[in-house]
Amino acid sequence: MTIRVSEFDLRYWEHRHTEDHERRPEGFEWLASYGTSVVHDAVNRHFQKDDVILELGCGTSGLMHDLAQDGFSRLKAIDYSQAAIDTQNSIHGDADIDFRCMDVSNLEFENSSIDGIIDKSTLDSLDCCVGVDDQSAARRAVQEAYRVLRPRGRWIVISLRDPKRRVEDFEGLFRLVDVVEVRTNDASPCADYFVYCFEREA
Ligand SMILES: C[S@@+](CC[C@H](N)C(=O)[O-])C[C@H]1O[C@@H](n2cnc3c(N)ncnc32)[C@H](O)[C@@H]1O
C-alpha cells in the first residue's frame, strides 16, 4: 500500500501521542516550558491577558494550562492528532481552554479572529514534511496563520531553526519583531533554540 507523506506524519504523531499517553500521562514538553524565563518574557511582552491566543500543534504540552494559571483567559489550542487532544482534555479538561483536533494548514477559524499565535516546535516538525504545489508545509501553515491572525497580531515561534532559514517562510506576510538566541550552556558553540516574535503585516 502506498501512503502519502502527510498521512505518514499524522500516523507517526498519533502513534507517538498514544504511546505517550500510557508512558507519560502528565504530558511531554518540547524545548522549553512557560517557566523558562525567555518564554515567559516573550509571552508577557507580546500578548495581553485578554487576547485570543491560539497554540498551533499543542501536543501534550502544559503551555496553555500554564498561561491560563497566569491569567490569560481566552485560550485555544489545536493539534491534528486526536490522541494529543484527548490527553490534553484528560489532563487540563477543567481549565477553560478550547482544545480542538485540526490541521495547521486548514484552520477552522474566521479571518482575523485571533490576536496572538504561539508555536513551540510545530514549524520545526513541519520542516520535516514534504509540501505540495512547490510550497513547504511550514509556508502553508504561515499562510493559514496569516489569514486567521488580525493585522498587527503577533506570533511567538519557539524553534530549533536559525534565523537565516526560519524567517524565509514568513517573507511578505510577517515582519520579524525580535529574536532571542537561547544557550543553556555559555560554552556551547551554537544556540539550543530561538524564540522569535513575528508581526502580521497590516
Ligand atoms: C514537536 S511536537 C511539539 C508539541 C508541543 N508544541 C510542545 O512544545 O510540546 C509537534 C506537534 O505538532 C503536531 N503537528 C504536526 N503537524 C501538524 C499539522 N499539520 N497540524 C496540526 N498539528 C500538527 C504534532 O502532532 C505534535 O504534537
TrEMBL record:
Pfam families: Methyltransf_11
Keywords: Methyltransferase, Transferase
InterPro entries in alphabetical order: Lys/N-term_MeTrsfase_sf, Methyltransf_11, SAM-dependent_MTases_sf
Molecular-function GO terms, alphabetical: S-adenosylmethionine-dependent methyltransferase activity
Source species, domain of life: Eukaryota
Domain Methyltransferase type, chain residue ranges per copy: 54-156
Any one GO BP annotation for this protein: methylation
Family matches, as SUPFAM superfamilies: S-adenosyl-L-methionine-dependent methyltransferases
Bilayer-crossing regions: none
CDD domains: AdoMet_MTases
PANTHER family, per database record: METHYLTRANSFERASE TYPE 11 DOMAIN-CONTAINING PROTEIN, SAM-DEPENDENT METHYLTRANSFERASE SUPERFAMILY PROTEIN
Family, as annotated: Belongs to the methyltransferase superfamily.
The protein's name: Methyltransferase type 11 domain-containing protein
